[in-house]
Amino acid sequence: MTEHHTVWDADACIEDLMAARSADMPASLQAPGSVLYLLIDPFLGDPVLLAPIEEDLPAEELNAQRTRAWQRPTFATRLPARLGMDPALAPYLVALEGVDDPWMDTSLQWAIQETVQTWQIDLPSPVAHRVGGWLQSSAQGTELAAHLTEWFRLRTQHPTSARYLRLADRRVLSLTRHVLGDATLSACLHPVQRWHWLDAHAAWATLSANVPQLVADDHTHRVPAQRLPIFDTQQWALMAQGPGIHRQMAQSIAQRLAQSDCTAPARWQPVTNAQWQAALLSARS
């Protein structure tokens, strides 16, 4: 039987996905009692500071530039010590004015564009994933940034020269979720109440903090933040294959889109564990 291939329209796909993801946005994004923060990863380019940033710019001046560009408060995380990278490449938070903030729609469109670009596997350079997600928290921005800084410090039982876990790259976050599991991540997510992002299908994904209800109802009780668990040897072996796994995932999606009977991406469900396992097996072969 002859396979029928088709050329899909990336711009039309982005437009359809934008309409769909705006319509099926998690209802919890509008929950009261928390601030909505946009997480940005400027590692491959800042979405609003388009001019080259002066190397080793003082943190106060860098934050002032970001605050002026966004017209919103911004809060920088810190890279692990002795990493040898410019501090300006560290992820940072933007405090949005709720889900109706114009930056919400803009950042959602950026995230969709980034994901769709990864499905075009013939691109000559890596696709920057600048939108790390949308975080809800009642914590102050500086406190939340400090918590994320701890999460970004890689800890593993397996000897490695790697120090930085780029969870602000939502592909890394998605793989970490697959490797560690929801229960493990939810148990140490606080003071993040919910972390929303788009997965490799450009479908909504959400992690929610698991805080005992009696504690959650008692606003005078301060729950201490927790570090991300240490990756054991087997878990780190999976994480270390991340680039190959993400590449295989993108190739699988590209092959699906080339089929004439492919369901529109706007109707795709989130990536399943079976799809993660298939990408992992392909990356190993």
SSE order and pairing:
Elements: H1 10-23, E1 35-40, H2 59-70, E2 74-76, E3 92-95, H3 102-118, E4 131-137, H4 141-151, H5 170-180, H6 182-187, E5 192-198, E6 204-208, H7 213-217, H8 233-239, H9 242-257, H10 273-284
Antiparallel strand pairs: 1-3, 1-4, 2-3, 4-5, 5-6
Helix pairs in contact: 1-3, 9-10
Describe this structure in words.
The protein has helices spanning 10-23, 59-70, 102-118, 141-151, 170-180, 182-187, 213-217, 233-239, 242-257, 273-284; strands at residues 35-40, 74-76, 92-95, 131-137, 192-198, 204-208. With 285 residues, it is an alpha+beta fold. The chain has a 6-stranded antiparallel β-sheet, with helices on both faces. A hairpin with a 5-residue loop joins strand 5 (192-198) and strand 6 (204-208). Helix 1 packs across helix 3 and helix 9 packs across helix 10 (273-284). It is globular and about 50 Å long. Mean pLDDT is 90; it is low at 213-221.
Keywords for this structure?
single chain, 285 residues, alpha+beta, 10 helices, 6 strands
Spatial strand arrangement across the major sheet: 2-3-1-4-5-6
Helical content band:
25-40%
Order of helices and strands: HEHEEHEHHHEEHHHH
Taking all residues together, what is the mean pLDDT? 90
Alpha carbon gyration radius: 19 Å
Helix segment tally: 10
Bin the strand percentage: 5-15%
Structural class: alpha+beta
Largest sheet: 6 strands, antiparallel
Backbone shape: globular
Distance between the termini: 27 Å
| Number of distinct beta strands | 6
